[in-house]
Amino acid sequence: MTRIERWVVARRRLWLALWGAAALALAPGLARLGIDNSPRVFFLERSAAVASYREFVARFGPEEGARRVVTGDALWTPAGLAYLERAEREAAALPGVRTAAGLVTHHRRFLAEPPSAEPEAFRARVLANPLDRAMGFVADSGRAATLLVETGELEPRAAADLLAGLDRLAAQAPAGTTAFAIGRRSLELALDRSVAEIERVYFPLLALAALALLAVCFREASAVALPLAYVGVCELALLGTMGWAGVRLNLILALLPPLLFVIGLATAIHLLFRCRALEAEGLDARAATVATLREQLRAVVGTTATTAAGFGALAVAPVGPVATLGLWAGLGMLIQLAAALTLLPALLATVAAHRGALPERALEARLERFGRRLAQLAVRRRAPVVGGFAALALVALAGLPRLGAESNALTYLPAEHPVRARTAALERMGVGVASLELWLSAAPGAPGFDDPQALGRLRQLSARVGALAPALSAVSAGDLVDDLGAGSPLAALPDAARRAALLPLLRADPEGGPLLARFLAPDGRATRVTAFLRTVGFDAVDPFARAAVAAAAALFPGARIEPTGGFPLLLELQRYLLSTLALSLALTGLVVVVAFALLLRDAGDVGRALVPNLWPIAVVFGGMGWFGVPLDLATVMVASIVLGLAVDSTIHTLAHHRERRREVGARAAVVEKLERAAPAYLLTAAILCAGFGVCGLSDFAPTARFGQLAAAALALSLAANLLLVPALFGGGQRSRRAPRGARIG
Predict the structure, then answer these.
(1) pLDDT of residue 694
(2) CA distance linking residue 146 with residue 433, whole number of Å
(3) Other C-beta atoms within 10 Å of 732: how many?
(4) Neighbouring C-beta atoms of residue 327, cutoff 10 Å
(5) Which of 631, 637, 573 is nearest to 43 (CA)?
């Protein structure tokens, strides 16, 4: 490889020009990077439930949308009701809205005058109407009225425009009332803002923290600029490619830029430290760069492979955003490896050639002595060190049975967040924002659901389902037909005769017909029952769905009954969190084992090398159980990513350990390596912990937990690499021919 390394360094201007041109060409792609946290992003595409849901939507229409809520003392005044009527009309005209239904729309056919003409009479009529309460058009107490706005699938920009239009309508509410929009679209927009916060606030803070740490350590502008230039070009290359490819960030993929930033910075720092050390020993710029690349090549390739494996293992996850993160992170690692072998040596040689005298390395020397003392302590006190690490792991592992998962996306937001607070307030008033659909298909040979008797049983079913926790109400085609009959001259007829007469009238009605078509197929062979729920996790929704299916099966024996809807599909991916964790960790571990096997060529050494890398993960996940920190979409990735990162330092320590211990002995080999590598380990750990720790400042729970847990795991990994690795690898016989003057710890 020496010839190739010299060729790269000799043509450093060419490589700088090539990478600069690539960055300039790809940089405009950054402007094309959008944000998309719509529900379909988080559906399990390989799930049969998703295909079934799409068939359901094709049959009955989409069930996405929002509620516009009006509350306040002036709600039931002429001004308040006039505003309701105007808002319903204007909301229905907004782009992207398929239907907008509320109190005025529901009762218009029976009113001789507008509701504002007789407010008290209208209020009494509404509060006495079961369908108004079941649809959530009015809270049980009359404290709030809502407008149900239904849309199809909207692009992120269209969804944001719709919510902006609803907010403009809310701003027109008269004095004494408060209006706001809430629902899945609102949560989606809140997630978008949290993603933007990572890129606009926390990523710049990470860069500033890295800049400060580099300045403190190197005290030289070129040494600070070099690693930042390297990671900047790599980030531009990857993110620009993503932008040109039409990728949109979501709450998971938004973690990619800061992740690759700190990983690339760690590689640059390792090479920069070694190059400066070789220059301090008397080598010129070109020779020091070539020697650094030759010496560190095995470690750079090994660490890139294991880190890429940590991300790549996520690509097999059934959760779309997690898999996408794994794929793009894998590409990012390949870009960083290519740049580490070409761009980074070119930068090192260029900076060193124009620097003149090497700046003082007092801090680096102190860090080297610190690393040596720790390694010596570890090899001399092997039993207490190993015992202490083992004891902490055992205590932590006892917390694993307590580890749970959080699947209520609303709790990802702070308690005071408007979306969370308003949703909770509306649910306390008896109006549900989330929903679950029961899809019923008639058995062959059985009467359709448009049969008068079946309509009656559908109404019974919605009453039973609406009484199950966590449901707040439920609606069926039977409720729609009976609601029309309650205000018509046909009300005195027997139930079956009344329903038989009303059904064709409702289908022909300009307003009631489209609404009925959302609940009953034209041929009557399929129907839906919509249950409005409190916003909860799958631990509450799953038993509810089973109970609802059982209730439907009791009333419609032989019918095919399937629970579906966007809300349960979003919860479905949460069930895969533990399996995603186990699978990604197993695949990452397999690659790490292979890397160590190629590096160490000894089964015992491979086993010892795995211990300090699995130990931080065991402590962190056990600690999550003890402290009640749940798994979520972000924290489930901590294990494989941290394993891929933590193993980097171990690989740097052991890259030449097998050869070196034959020359100077195991103790001296590990001590001298940690002496040289300690400055890089400490600085990269500080930057990694700061980078992830900055994400821990977010008020969005998954981002904050991910940052805090990753920072904790990497701090533990640093301790393991400085203490546990020398304790495990510093034993055994001394070299048969240790050179004179070799320092044995």
Answers:
(1) 79
(2) 11
(3) 9
(4) 13
(5) 573
- Which residues, at least 6 apart from 375, have a Cβ–Cβ distance to it below 8 Å? 670, 671, 674, 675, 722, 726, 730, 745
Q: What would the DSSP string read from start to end of 128-150?
A: T-HHHHHTTSB-TTSSEEEEEEE
What backbone phi and psi angles, to 5 degrees, belong to 436? -130, 140
For residue 151, which amino acid is it?
A: T
Q: From residue 710, how far is each of 270, 466, 499 by CA, in Å?
A: 21, 43, 61
d(CA 310, CA 307): 5
> How high is the pLDDT of residue 359?
61
**What pLDDT shows up at residue 744?**
35
- Tokens 């995603």 appear where? 580
pLDDT band at 351 (very low <50, low <70, confident <90, very high): confident
Phi/psi of residue 252, nearest 5 degrees: -95, -50
DSSP secondary structure code for residue 440 in this structure: E
CA distance 669 to 74: 81
Q: 152 in helix, strand or coil? A: coil
* Environment class of 225 (CB within 10 Å of its CB; exposed 0-12, middle 13-18, buried 19+): middle
Residue found by looking up tokens 């079956």 in the block: 496
Could you give the CA distance from residue 278 to residue 292 in angstroms, rounded to a whole number? Answer: 8
- pTM, two decimals, is 0.81
Q: Letter for the amino acid at 698?
A: S
Q: What's residue 2's pLDDT? A: 59
Q: By three-state DSSP, how is residue 631 classified?
A: strand
One-letter amino acid at 113 equals: E
Q: Give pLDDT, residue 238.
A: 94
∠ Cα 359 360 364 (to 5°): 115
CA dihedral 667, 293, 337, 695 (to 10 degrees): 60
